[in-house]
Structures are given as C-alpha cells and as structure tokens.
Design a protein that fits this description.
heterodimer; A: about 70 residues; mainly beta; Alpha-Beta Plaits; two-stranded antiparallel ribbon; 1 helix; globular; B: about 250 residues; Rossmann fold; 9 helices; about 35% helix; about 20% strand
C-alpha cells in the first residue's frame, strides 16, 4: 500500500469533521486542542495514511494538502 | 506523520491558486466552500482564469468575489442570469457563469432564470440548493421539503397552505434553450469528483455555443437546518435526495 501524508492548515480549519467521513484508513480526527478562532482543528492520529486525497476533496475550506510516495 | 514524504514530487493534491488565501466566511461544513473550490479547479484546469467572468447572487455566496480569483460582478437579487446574459453578449469569447442559491434562483429570480434558459443563453449556471434561505435566518424557500421546519414554517411546510417544493431543474430541462441540465451533490468524495466533471462539462459547453448549461448542486445548510455538519449531510442524503434525485436530466449531444 502506498504511503501518504497530509499537511493541515490548522489555523484555517473550522473543525466541521466532514473530511473524517471520507477517510478509508481512519487516520484523521478532530484534536482536543483549538486554533485561535476556537475551532477543534483536524489532526492526524496515526501513520496509516495512503494519500488517497478523499479528505482534501471533501474539505469545504481547502485546508488539506496531500502527498503520496511514488 | 511521516515527514520524509512531504516533497514537491510527491504532491497529489493542493489548494488551487484560483482560490484566494482568504478564510471563507461560510459556516463550518458548508457546501459553498466545496463548490467554490470545484469551480476554481475547473477554471485552473481549463486555463481560463483570465477569460472567466462570474456573476454572484444575493445570499451567503454574495461574497464569492473574496474567494474566487476571477472577475466577478454582483447582481441584484435574482438577476444574475440577466446580468450574465449581458456580459456574455458583450464578451462572447469569455466564459461566463452565474452562481446562485435556491432563494435567489428559484424564488425572486424565477423569471430571469426561466427566460435566460429559454433564450438559450450561452452561459453556465451553478445552482446551489439547500432548501432554505440560509443567509437571512433560515426562512422557507421554494425548494423547502414538505414537512421541513424553517423559521417561517415552524410546524413544517404544509403543502395545502404553502404550496409544493419547486423542482426548478426539471422545469428548466423542458425548455429548448438548455443543452445540459444535471443535479449533483458534494457530501461524499465520489460525488465531489462527479460534480467536478459536471461543472467542467458545463464550462466546456460554452465553446459549443449551443445553449445554457445548468448544474444544480444539492447542498447543506447546517445553521439553517440546526444540525452539526456531518449529521446535516446524513439528513441531506435521507431527505433531500429522494425529492431531488442526482444525475443528468438533460444532455443534448
């Protein structure tokens, strides 16, 4: 399985959690910490990311960048 | 997180530069953001950023010009198709799209919408349907479902008193001026990809100069529906989609 990772712009994340519904590897969840606006931002929970970009495609605010090992 | 993967050659998805860096004012989880991004990605892929003019509605997306890095003209409430008609006729080489909500397109702007489609104006119309007037405080819209509670129908929409939900997309498909009429959604990854294909096609159709392309996107309004974002999307799937089924309604070859 290809290895991937995501970079989250936590300051722009609004913590809607819509992206978490699309993740096939259960990698992402909302953090207990908050950003400067008070939103619980998105956080990677483990290294199982496959770089499918489903989360980034669902994100209404476009805060996720996706990388996948070639 | 595996830092070693973060290299330019491994990049598979990034925020399109056709979107500005501004933080969107939309509520968390609102479909507007996703739809804006899809339009921006289509404009980027087609390489038409300098040849695109958008027409924004009155509603939450009145501020679309803050987020889409293309020329955008603001229309009076409901008049986006009329304005888009004027722009397209003056600048036929430009790609012109209108972006409207259900209150704008299907209520106050019904006349403009129907006549622009009937004339077959060579424009792309994006219609965001969330069954409610979101910006003004969740009032009943023409597209509000039967029994759906809104601030002006607190006991649910009563068909006898308030009329039937309006399926304006099906209505527009009857008109000879439209060449492509479709209904999409953006709450699942596969649907987002399909929606992007539809928007791309609707923009490409302007090269053919045959008529109006119309893309309805069934979206959510978490604040208006008074649901958390993920639950709002479930509610959308269970309640909105039976009334507003997804798929192409008209596709003239």
């Amino acid at each position: 399985m290809a290895k991937g990772t995501i970079v989250i712009d936590t300051e722009k994340c609004k913590g809607c959690a819509v992206c978490t519904t699309g993740c096939p590897a259960n990698v992402i969840a909302l953090s207990k910490k908050v950003n400067s606006k008070g939103y619980n931002y998105l956080e990677m929970q483990n290294d199982a990311c496959i770089g499918c970009a489903n989360c980034a495609i669902l994100c209404p605010d476009g805060v996720i960048t996706v990388y996948r090992e070639k | 997180m595996n830092e070693s993967i973060i290299k330019p050659e491994n990049l598979v998805y990034r925020r399109t530069p056709v979107l500005t860096d501004n933080v969107m004012h939309y509520c968390p989880g609102c479909g507007h953001g996703t739809i804006h991004r899809l339009i921006a990605e289509v404009i980027e892929e087609m390489g038409i950023q300098e040849q695109t003019i958008g027409v924004a509605p009155v509603g939450c997306s009145v501020l679309a010009y803050n987020y889409l890095d293309v020329d955008i003209q603001e229309a009076a409430h409901g008049r986006a198709p009329a304005l888009a008609t004027g722009i397209k006729r003056l600048k036929p080489d430009f790609f012109v799209f209108s972006y409207q909500g259900d209150g704008d397109l299907a209520a106050i702007g019904t006349a403009e919408t129907i006549h622009a489609c009937n004339r077959g104006e060579n424009i792309t119309m994006i219609f965001v349907n969330n069954g409610i007037y979101g910006m003004t405080g969740g009032q009943m819209a023409p597209t509000t479902l039967e029994g759906m509670k809104t601030s002006t129908s607190p006991y649910g929409r009563d068909i006898k008193m308030m009329g039937n939900p309006l399926k304006i997309t099906e209505l527009l498909a009857q008109l000879p001026g439209t060449i492509y009429v479709t209904r999409q959604a953006v709450y699942k990854p596969a649907l987002v990809r399909k929606c992007k294909t539809a928007i791309r096609k609707a923009f490409e159709n302007q090269r053919l100069n045959k008529g109006t392309s119309f893309v309805e996107v069934v979206s959510n309004c978490n604040s208006g529906w008074k649901l958390p974002p993920v639950e709002a999307n479930k509610w959308l799937e269970e309640n909105m989609l039976p009334m507003y089924p997804l798929g192409d309604i008209k596709d003239v070859k």
